[in-house]
Design brief:
122 residues, DNA primase DNAg catalytic core, N-terminal domain, 10% helix
Length: 122
């Protein structure tokens, strides 16, 4: 009998024996987003990233890794004061950037500001 058989879980219908935890059933295949177009390549590049910023070395990144993944510290713009990490599509084109707060020690300020909460609705 295979380890996947329902009979080993208890009854032939998959119900557990007394004291056995129920085994999870495999999920049906996840929905495929067939009609969703892929992200378009960006029309710009963050070319002026600081590759020698101290926070990159603090995270244990070597100069070779920084160059290979085109990672760097961004000094201005929407990604200001963040480590910018390009995200590529399967063709190797940049479709987005991820931003990380550079210091592990300090908390990151909000990138887009904060939205005041109405305490009565929380």
């Amino acid at each position: 009998m295979s380890a996947d058989s329902d009979e080993e879980a208890g009854e032939p219908n998959g119900t557990p024996k007394n004291g056995d935890a129920p085994r999870p059933r495999p999920a049906s295949s996840s929905p495929v987003l067939e009609n969703v177009p892929p992200n378009k390549p960006l029309k710009f590049r963050l070319d002026k990233l600081e590759r020698d910023h101290p926070s990159l070395a603090e995270r244990g990144l070597t100069p070779e890794t920084i160059a290979e993944f085109d990672i760097g510290f961004c000094g201005k713009g929407m990604m200001a004061d963040r480590i910018a990490i390009p995200i590529h599509n399967p063709e190797g084109q940049v479709v987005a950037y991820a931003g990380r707060w550079p210091s592990c020690a300090a908390a990151a300020p909000p990138l887009f500001g904060t939205i005041p909460l109405d305490q009565s609705t929380v």
